[in-house]
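Target chain:
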Amino acid sequence: MDISVVIVAWNAKRYLELCLESLEKAPPRRSTETLVVDNASTDGTAEMLETRFPWVKLIRSPENLGFARGNNVAIRQCKGRYIALVNPDVIVLPGCLDALADFLDQNPKVGNVGPRVFNLDMTQQSTCRRFPTLWNNFCDATGLATRFKNSRFSAGEHMFYFPHDRTLRVDVLVGCFSFIRREAFDAVGLLDEKMFMYGEDVDWCRRCWKAGWEVVFFPGARAIHDRGKTTAPYPVRFALAQQRSVLHYWSKYHGILGRLGIRSIMVFRHLMRYSVGVLSSLAHSPGRGTSKVRKQVSGACLRELLIGSGNKIQVSGVGSQVKSHS
């Protein structure tokens, strides 16, 4: 088997259907299997798969395993030399999987390669990132990264200054679509299951580089990502999940000063967003609906940062890296 496609889904029936239709309409020329992990969906996802896509290997989970753990369940069952981790809200364009497989065939040092990804309107989506630092997180928190998108110095983790028009070795590929060599998984290990969702792409790419494998962006393969739609109904839950993954990453790779630094930046960011939300509500501005959500999200994140939570993460969903994977 050449390619194993792995999709983890929770109540994303329509998006998953479109994703699988894209694979069905333009199947790769290479031998391919498709595995879908259904994280205890209640919207008829599993039944749709059995009726509409009998060629898919369905793995039913009795509970929501999360993104990392759900992928790991399927990866252990994959037969392919290459494993494509694809979000359910991705449309795989014709030739994409073959192009990525060809690239890995020709570049034996590459462990993870990602395609060029577009929004629904075919505008460019940024999928290349740098490893997190206190400086690039500060730039994100203060708005410098947004204000000076074309500046390498003040950019955040996302490489908005990179036009995604050439092959490039990068620190991190956003996890909405990763095409990984099986030998890399054997050397690096599976996704970190302590990250319920979000951040597992950054962590795995870091371990990939450390193990001697390259991570490469390749624009010769293309896909579409309807970013953030599967997570939008649960903004607070997913924001907390992301925050916990970020804190886990910094605990894993940085000392006490780094951990204190990232917490301080996160507190500052959410204080600013919460304050803007309050002022917007008082002023009855046209965007107060969005501001209300931001206020709720930042309020919940601040409470957990300042007070803490001993509760296990309970997130009703699995999906793309904020993706809104930020």
User: Anything to note?
Assistant: The radius of gyration is 19 Å. The first helix runs from residue 13 to 25. Residues 235-307 form one domain.
